[in-house]
Design brief:
By secondary structure, chain A is of the alpha/beta class. The first copy, chain A, contains 15 helices and 10 strands.
């Protein structure tokens, strides 16, 4: 079995470990937020962790009344800008905790007196040392170049922060490892052969699943070398929809609450993969991937699993080794 | 001549008109910002206007010390979330000013007591009515479905806001219409035939040109039906670089200050279009598109012009009518 497939399969255990061992650090950060009441939140991240940042924006906005923005590190690292972060909570998210641009933004924020936090798998990393609060992901070593279990752990830690801030949702979180195990078992195998001939894929999701769409597209790019472009269903209708033509496949994440534009999109996309918890949506796809039904705010943690599995199945159908992405190393350092 | 080509050519005049007639509204907004000192800025937009928002983030961060985030309208419209915007400046940007999701976020922000502003081409639109401050774009009616001159006017109005806030840059702005006219003349014609056979394109830019890369990719998708994916050069190295293979074309925007990873990227991308003001970078491309040299903060206003012209040339080389994007209408309303 490949490293990535093994790490996908570890996710229920990894999340259960985070729920058990990670709570103290997260509760401490939540207490600091409640006490200091930051005016806004900035998340700084790259790659899969930037997709976790997209989840943080919707999650903390919907459940906790926090306005969250994603940082543009170039402002600090390329131009020496000093945007005012003094009233902010600044969260760096990174598996390795080494990318210098992510560390630079957290450094600058702390210098200005912002509340800073690092969500990291490696508690001895430069990012962990830069931040006031450290939230360890407890995912264990990740060997595959394409991140899977650390992405899930990032979502899990963010969901725990949301629960700790609001005081509710812990019971729903506790039920999640079992739902993840179901997502690994059904469908038992994914047949992606039908989609193996295309070097292009459009991946759509909105709201909580904006992050899911971006993360699935990234996994497909990393493992199958297919140019997979992610967009929110709403943004897609404001221009990119023009690219759709017969034979261009699309994947839509439609679990939980779905956007009003979904029905009109479904009829425009004939070559379709659907990830959903609803039989009527799955039945309209060329390939329907069922995911367990969970509350909307936790849906990205289960809906990503069939997406990860689809990426691996697509790589294999294309005759590729999903553990050896072209041009990539496990740790990428950008400045 | 097509509507889009005519509107691309109008851009020097359109920007000169904005500089002449738009200043009072922008100075009034700047005075309000200086007086009220919002803790952060949120921009809400869709399509090309969302790319103008990407410019706003870097521009106001680098030149004005403001932290800018891009809104996720779904938080409000899909889930009924009420993220705290009370300490913010919330800017809606839209050509038409009608998309209900953009209006909903500005409505919610104003209800909470935020400073609100609408950057719109249509001053009678719902978005203009929703906001406290209106900044008219003075671009005149836009007939082509793919926005060009209104995107440029949005960048121009944001650059004017930055100049008004900082008190400097007006002389550099005043010189810009002449630079735009140069960008329309050189190169005199763009030969995109070499790239017409590919249905995929990667478009890269960072910092100020993050916006330029996204806007060029959107124009290519809208007019040439090529799946053009934009990324920052840094994000690209954190995963998507795996898609690169012989024959997959890339376009890099490398005008003004360029990121440290650029040299290593150039050698990895053989089938390359470069937009730059530097001869040594242009000489390394299969197709080099020179743009005028201007200060970094204004470079997106001139570098977009060869990008727009490349998109139109590519559409024609693919035998398409760039005025008739498949599946699109001029005004898109999403909720």
């Amino acid at each position: 079995v490949s490293a990535i497939a093994a790490e996908i399969a570890e996710q229920p255990d990894s999340l259960a470990r985070l729920l058990r061992d990670g709570r103290d650090e997260i509760d401490a950060l939540a207490a600091r937020i409640v006490e200091a009441r930051p005016a806004f939140v900035v998340v700084v991240a790259r790659g899969s962790s930037d997709n976790a940042a997209r989840y943080a924006q919707v999650l903390l906005g919907v459940r906790n009344g926090l306005t969250v923005g994603l940082a543009a590190p170039s402002i600090v690292t390329l131009y020496g800008g000093r945007p005012d972060l003094s009233g902010a909570l600044v969260v760096g998210i990174s598996q390795s905790g080494v990318s210098p641009d992510v560390v630079a933004v957290v450094d600058e924020a702390r210098r200005q007196g912002a509340i800073t936090a690092a969500f990291v798998n490696d508690a001895a990393s430069p990012l962990a040392r830069a931040a006031e609060h450290v939230v360890r992901l407890h995912a264990g070593p990740e060997r595959a170049v394409a991140a899977t279990k650390t992405y899930l752990a990032e979502l899990g830690a963010l969901a725990m922060l949301s629960a700790s801030l609001s005081g509710h949702g812990w019971d729903e979180l506790a039920a999640l490892p079992a739902r993840l195990a179901e997502a690994l078992e059904e469908p038992r195998a994914i047949d992606a052969a039908r989609f193996a001939g295309s070097k292009r894929l459009v991946v759509l999701g909105r709201g909580f699943h904006y992050a899911t769409a971006f993360e699935i597209a990234l996994k497909v790019k990393e493992t199958s070398y297919v140019l997979a472009e992610a967009a929110s269903t709403a943004d897609f209708l404001h221009g990119p929809v023009a690219v759709m033509e017969e034979g261009l496949p699309a994947l839509i994440v439609a679990a939980g609450r779905t956007p009003p534009e979904l029905p009109s999109l479904l009829v425009r996309l004939p070559e379709l993969v659907v990830i959903s918890d609803r039989a009527e949506l799955l039945g309209r796809a060329a390939l329907g991937l069922r995911c367990p039904s969970v509350p909307d705010w936790l849906s990205p943690l289960v809906a990503i699993v069939p997406g990860q599995r689809f990426a691996v199945a697509l790589a294999r159908a294309r005759g590729l080794d999903p553990d050896a992405p072209r041009g990539l190393t496990k740790v990428t350092e950008t400045t």
